[in-house]
Amino acid sequence: MSENFLSIFDISKGDVERMMARSAEHREMSAAGGIGKSLEGKAVGIFFEKPSTRTRVSFEAAAALLGAHPVLMDSASMQTNRGETLEDTAKVLSSYLDIIVMRTHGQERLEEFAAHSAVPVINALSDLEHPTQALADMFTIASHDIDLSDFKLAYIGDGNNVANSLVGLSSVMGFDIAVASPPGREPDRAVLNRSGMSNGRAAHITITDDPAEAVRDADVVYTDVWVSMGREGGAELRKLFEPYQVNADLLSAAPADAIVMHCLPAHRGEEITDEVMRSERCVAFEQAKNKLHTAKSVLEFFLRWKEG
Asked: How far apart are CA 176 and CA 167, in angstroms?
């Protein structure tokens, strides 16, 4: 494994399985009212250059609940906002902190920061990937007695950072994924290639513009906002995505027991209807809750790498 978690490709199937098992232990301890102190004496940097609710708060709470001290930073309060280089910032912050959780813009910015950090760096979202979200998704799926190496996930909508990490994770774990996106809005080509899609084909990956085809035989139907953070989108873009709404009609083409996932925030009435969000088959808020448990396991896992 890598010392950093910048991409879903930085971890193996065994790594995922270990973090899933540890996340389950944390969920059980939390339910029993237990508090672990595995990170006591550690300082966890949380450096977010883009807005966040669930990811930021789950990592902050995870650090605190495990006995560490979370140190929150945003771009407006940092000298990077006045021209200090990422290299200098990374060198300084990593001399104070034991691990740094970072949300930023381009993947290259994250990689530059990590290259100059003396401590592990965790990708809490970049424009290219959202690997910690994908882990919370896998934990949620496993909680519904679905075999993580033998199921089908249908992703409907924009081929964004979440879609990229899920496609990558399908190659790590071995599950099937079907992505239905408008032409030109598919997942990143380099991610598809790295996931084993040569000449536009891969046994475990289907790329289509037909949502009904994607959800056929799916165990999981997943969607996200049509306009990702930091991207412009108006009425024309929304019209492009209208056929990709997760609604009752689309779900009628999926198995009746397929669960529905959304990483939130949801724009009800756009990528998903209010009816589906409120239905029993939608586990979006379970996903959100599980981010706390997986954040704990990610922090522990990569701090142990540092400590050998």
From this structure: 9
